[in-house]
Design goal:
The chain is mainly beta and 137 residues long. Helix content is 12%, strand content 43%. The chain is built from 2 helices and 7 strands; from the N terminus they run H-H-E-E-E-E-E-E-E. The N and C termini lie far apart (52 Å).
Amino acid sequence: MRRFTFLLSALLLFSPAARADRDPDITVGWISRTPSIDYVWDSPHPDRDGWPAPGQPVAWIAHVRNWKAVSRPALPFRWTLDGTEIASGTVDLPASSSTTVELPWTWTFVRHRLTFAIDGDGENTLTVFTDAISIGF
């Protein structure tokens, strides 16, 4: 009897109907950086070629999606660097749409943890390392 109860509970937990009200309505899909710089093949200096120059202005861009058919005006967001808030604000997110939130920054080769959070509930966050290797297809 216990096995049946557990199995039934697991089926209810993972069924689409049971998850529908718990699915996040806002998702941070990815964080990109501009300018986008082409990969330098056979570079003699791969630690510097294909990267922004130290001190160059760059922008980090959070790509956010609203999956629900309800608009979300004035959603609070914040950017943190190594756990310290460096920018915040609000953004309007129309129903069933995507938007971006930009953070101007000055390039450095020092590794930092950059986090974007939106909607204030702690579930809609994404963290990247600022010096992580980029890849493009």
